[in-house]
């Protein structure tokens, strides 16, 4: 069930999940396992079918490296990926017990470029974003850890779709060899240059990793529900495609009943998912007469920190609230 803003709060007020819902989350039933098994098989079948077509198109792209064929091939590849996301909606609809509370998805356009920034808690985040933004904005392109390039089937698919693969370096490693950071920045710029050929949504989990209490403590995060945002990939995107981006789409995902595993999501054992979107104006990234490139980056870091502080407060408010709106289509 998908829910949005409610014109009559008295008529569509809902309550928190009852004790039975919570117990079922802890003790999966035979029905849960059956749902998860069917959903997994549908996911695998959809992935193999779409990847077969994707790899054939990628082979043409590799063998015919002409600029005039790249744009139509990119559109074709993106269309196949969009079909994969749409197909995943079939097994997601098996989980009818999940209640979705969504606000803010109006006024989006598939013919424009967006930066998408979101908090990161689980692999489920990716499927939530893809389902809700599918055919509302251009295909989401993620910045991925380089290790994911070696994931069977999907790693090759991400490569074919020009997803940028980033190496993760500790601050200590960067102090020893600063060139590693420069190489990553250049990788980001090359990927973003490819995104200029067709409208793209550049997706960035700016925290760099999924949140855990241990990671929060290790970095002394000033936020209650978030890690510190990182600006590297964001800055590279803006420096390369800044004039193309319509806005930053700031997405907040909350799981009021606890962060689910991917298997719990497949089984339909996620009582509620709350999502909020807003478009945020992107500040100028062009160095001018009175500010250097370093000052521009510092300004962007301050801007992102303010956005993140607002997101942290929003998450706190959403977790404290038990009101939802009426059903609407995803």
Task: Describe this structure as you would to a colleague.
- With 330 residues, this protein is α/β, with parallel strands linked by helices.
- The protein has one domain: 3-Layer(aba) Sandwich (Glycerol-3-phosphate (1)-acyltransferase), CATH 3.40.1130.
- Helix content is 48%, strand content 13%.
- It is built from 11 helices and 9 strands.
- The strands form 2 sheets. The chain has a 7-stranded mixed β-sheet with strand order 1-2-9-8-3-7-4, with helices on both faces.
- Strand 5, helix 5 and strand 6 form a beta-alpha-beta unit.
- Helix 7 packs across helix 9.
- It is globular.
List the helices and strands and how they pair.
Elements: E1 2-3, H1 19-26, H2 30-63, H3 67-92, E2 99-103, E3 113-118, H4 124-133, E4 140-142, E5 144-145, H5 154-160, E6 165-166, H6 171-176, H7 179-195, E7 201-204, H8 213-218, H9 232-241, E8 245-254, H10 262-266, E9 272-280, H11 293-320
Entry keywords:
single chain; 330 residues; Glycerol-3-phosphate (1)-acyltransferase; two-stranded parallel sheet; 11 helices; 13% strand; globular; disordered N terminus; disordered C terminus
């Amino acid at each position: 069930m998908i829910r949005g803003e409610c014109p009559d709060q008295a008529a569509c007020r809902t309550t928190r999940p009852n004790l039975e819902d919570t117990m079922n989350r802890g003790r999966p039933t035979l029905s849960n396992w059956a749902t998860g098994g069917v959903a997994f098989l549908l996911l695998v079948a959809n992935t193999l079918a779409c990847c077969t077509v994707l790899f054939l198109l990628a082979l043409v792209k590799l063998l015919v490296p002409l600029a005039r064929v790249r744009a139509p091939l990119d559109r074709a590849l993106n269309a196949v990926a969009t079909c994969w996301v749409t197909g995943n909606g079939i097994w997601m609809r098996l989980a009818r017990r999940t209640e979705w509370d969504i606000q803010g998805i109006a006024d989006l356009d598939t013919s424009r470029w967006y930066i998408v920034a979101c908090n990161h808690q689980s692999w489920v985040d990716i499927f939530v974003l893809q389902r809700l933004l599918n055919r509302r904005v251009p295909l989401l392109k993620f910045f991925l850890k380089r290790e994911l390039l070696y994931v069977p089937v999907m790693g090759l698919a991400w490569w074919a779709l020009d997803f940028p693969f980033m190496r993760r370096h500790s601050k200590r490693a960067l102090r020893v060899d600063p060139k590693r950071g420069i190489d990553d920045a250049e990788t980001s710029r090359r990927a973003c240059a490819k995104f200029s050929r067709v409208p793209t949504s550049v997706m960035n989990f700016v925290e760099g990793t999924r949140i855990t209490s241990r990671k929060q403590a290790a970095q002394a995060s000033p936020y209650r529900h978030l890690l510190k945002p990182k600006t590297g990939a964001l800055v590279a995107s803006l420096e390369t495609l800044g004039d193309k981006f319509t806005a930053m789409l700031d997405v907040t995902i909350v799981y009021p009943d606890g962060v689910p595993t991917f298997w719990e999501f497949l089984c339909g054992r996620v009582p509620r998912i709350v999502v909020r979107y807003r478009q945020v104006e992107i500040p100028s990234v062009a160095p001018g007469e009175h500010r250097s490139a370093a000052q521009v980056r510092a300004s962007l870091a301050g801007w992102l920190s303010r956005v993140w502080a607002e997101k942290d407060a929003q998450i706190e408010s959403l977790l404290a609230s038990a009101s939802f709106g009426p059903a609407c289509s995803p």
